[in-house]
Write a structure and sequence with these properties.
Helicase, Ruva Protein, domain 3, DNA-binding, single chain, four-stranded antiparallel sheet, 7 helices, 2 domains, alpha+beta, N-terminal domain of MutM-like DNA repair proteins, elongated
Length: about 270
DNA sequence: CGTCCACGTCTAC
DNA sequence: TAGACCTGGACGG
């Protein structure tokens, strides 16, 4: 479930499903290399917030106002599910057991997701473009002289220090909606020439959120019927994974999807 | 069977 | 700037 909109939907899913329950213990799947998560509380409830591509779980002590944060990222395949005890997924790696017989699980087939008990947001990731839009814009404008913005805009959009939450499908959809912006020119030039890029860094994730997420695989689907239908997905995915579009591998080995009209411009350096 | 591919970071030459 | 980290689905022989 893993770009900005999916992280936001994940936090919402947790708040709707775990905020009133009483959790008692936490289990880590031994196959996962991550640290054990130890609850200092006998009973607790769980709430969550997302910011870009990070998510924080908050364990709230049932007996006091104490709160324990757990910083998480979802990797390529991480998501949360509620199941009954005994029905946990094979790839559930963190399991929060409830007194009512249900379990909140962090399910992550590829195990690229991570967690760190006792921490909230990383300081090397920028503001969330959807809920901290002014800070997001300021962070970019005041750093536009830096070398990160020498890179082509299609690559800079993946830099989480400035574009926290933008991933491979969002960069494609953002740039595709600016038909006059050459995705291979420097990020600095692109942003100065077309400040609307920054607005789309909010608008496209907002659209994805509204449609229930841009999820690509059905097994990453904790949202059930809320998830986008094939028809509404077409509003979101006009470029990424679409027949007729061009692709190129960027310097990070990620496939960038773009309008074929830019093919003559695609010189990386 | 085998090879390629996937919504993301990380760290090590 | 390669690879490493992982599983599994799609597709080819």
């Amino acid at each position: 479930m893993p770009e900005l909109a999916e992280l936001k939907l994940t936090a919402q899913f947790i708040n709707e499903n775990a905020g009133n329950l009483k959790f008692t213990n936490i289990e880590k799947n031994p196959v996962h290399k991550g640290a054990e998560v130890i609850s200092p509380f006998k009973k607790f409830k769980i709430t969550s917030k997302s910011r870009g591509k990070e998510l924080v779980l908050y364990l709230h002590d049932a007996e006091s106002s104490d709160v324990l944060p757990i910083r998480m990222t979802m990797g390529m395949s991480g998501h949360f599910r509620m199941t009954n005890t005994g029905g946990e997924d094979k790839h559930a790696h963190l399991k929060f057991y409830n007194t009512d017989g249900t379990v909140l699980s962090f399910v992550d087939v590829r195990r690229f997701g991570k967690w760190k008990q006792g921490f909230e947001w990383s300081d090397n990731r920028g503001p969330d473009p959807t809920v901290e839009y002014d800070e997001f814009v300021e962070n970019i404008k005041s750093n536009l002289h830096k070398i990160a913005f020498d890179k082509p805009i299609m690559e800079a959009l993946m830099n989480q220090q400035y574009f926290n939450g933008i991933g491979n499908y969002l960069r494609a959809e953002i740039l595709y909606r600016l038909p006059h912006v050459n995705p291979f020119i420097s990020a600095r030039d692109a942003i100065q020439q077309e400040p609307k890029i920054l607005e789309l860094c909010k608008a496209i994730p907002d659209l994805a959120f509204m449609l229930g997420g841009g999820r690509i695989k059905s097994w990453e689907n904790p949202l059930g019927e809320m998830a986008a239908t094939p028809e509404t997905r077409r509003d979101l995915f006009q470029c990424y994974n679409r027949k007729g579009m061009s692709t190129i591998k960027d310097r990070n080995g990620r496939r960038f999807w773009f309008d074929p009209k830019w093919n003559s411009e695609r010189i990386l350096n």
